[in-house]
Design a protein that fits this description.
With 268 residues, this protein is of the alpha+beta class. It has two domains: 2-79, TATA-Binding Protein, CATH 3.30.310; 105-218, Hypothetical protein, domain 2 (Endonuclease III, domain 1, Orthogonal Bundle). The chain has helices at residues 11-15, 56-66, 73-77, 86-95, 105-115, 120-134, 148-152, 156-160, 168-179, 185-188, 193-201, 208-218, 229-238, 245-248, 252-265, and strands at 2-4, 23-25, 29-34, 37-44, 49-52, 137-139, 142-143. A five-stranded antiparallel sheet has the order 1-5-4-3-2. Strands 6-7 form a two-stranded antiparallel sheet. Strand 4 (37-44) and strand 5 form a beta hairpin. Helix 4 (86-95) crosses helix 15 (252-265). The model has no long low-confidence stretch (mean pLDDT 95). It binds a DNA duplex (13 and 12 nucleotides) through helix 5, helix 6, helix 12 and helix 13.
DNA sequence: ACTCAGGTATCCT
DNA sequence: AGGATACCTGAG
């Protein structure tokens, strides 16, 4: 099917924004594994027309939400005052097209636990191995992300084989807690941001950074502002008096993505 | 060989 | 409370 997306939507920027690890480049676009589906998506021509190899039904019920197409990012970008915050204005102009995907909170939690002290290719590799090892097979060469019970029952040696190293004990404990129902994602989804963050940080292997990533990318809490080395450096340089969070609530997380993108791609 | 990568737990003052 | 340090592993 084809769809026209008039709001900000740039596949490459989303793919490289560090929120998704199961996108792979294809000839015409990207192959995306999510929610037990595999999607091939590519841009047609120079406009905003896209080709997707799924039915309208699956698009309406899954991918449309996955790409967060009900939220108008252009309108959010327009809140940035070029006079008052020229740096963010430039960053947002540069990062236009980035969106925060709606991804599975369980999958994101494990993925960001894996991410610690790994670079993006290494994260991808570990996640892919994990899926191939214990996820349901979707088609010839794609596997879904394994559920909590599946991961909890995986032998330690197999986890080590996925290149997880010292994170194995974190993953085992979190998977066990999720399989036992101690971590209830549906319940957590109803908590206010602060309570959700506190609860996430009680999990073994989850610190501030992973908790904030899980908030933003797993629970779609768009005000969550993960601070990694890049963003910290940037904040010190560009916002010595502090970032004006109050101006952009409840979308500080989107601003973080623009800043992160700008700092990494343009100003290296 | 050596450093670094979107950190966190743990062990010190 | 706040700072230093160990930790698996793959890539350049």
């Amino acid at each position: 099917m084809q769809v026209e997306i008039t709001d900000d939507f740039d596949l490459k920027k989303i793919a490289d924004s560090g929120q998704c690890f199961r996108w792979t480049r294809t000839e015409g676009g990207y192959r995306i594994v999510a929610g037990g589906h595999v999607l091939e998506i590519g841009k047609i021509g120079d406009g905003q027309q896209f080709e997707l190899n799924c039915s309208e039904d699956v698009y309406e019920q899954f991918w449309k939400h996955y790409f967060d197409l009900d939220l108008q990012y252009a309108a959010i970008r327009a809140k940035i005052d070029p006079e008052r915050d020229p740096y963010l204005y430039k960053a947002a102009a540069c990062g236009r097209g980035i969106r925060i995907l709606n991804q599975n909170p369980w999958e994101m939690l494990i993925t960001f636990i894996i991410s610690q002290r790994k670079n993006i290719p290494a994260i991808r590799l570990s996640v892919e191995k994990l899926c191939k090892l214990s996820g349901n097979k979707i088609d010839e060469d794609n596997w879904a992300f394994p559920g909590p019970d599946r991961l909890a029952s995986l032998p330690e040696a197999q986890l080590l084989g996925c290149g997880l190293g010292y994170r194995v004990k974190y993953i085992q404990r979190v998977a066990r807690a999720a399989a036992d129902g101690e971590i209830d994602f549906d319940r957590m989804a109803k908590l206010p941001d602060k309570d959700l963050r506190d609860e996430l940080m009680k999990l073994y292997g989850v610190g501030v950074k992973v908790a904030n990533c899980e908030m933003l990318f797993g629970f779609h809490r768009l005000d969550s502002f993960p601070e990694d080395v890049w963003v910290l450096r940037l904040l010190q340089e560009q916002y010595p008096d502090g970032f004006p969070f109050s101006l952009y609530r409840p979308y500080n997380g989107i601003m973080q993505q623009y800043l992160f993108w700008y700092r990494r791609t343009v100003q290296i």
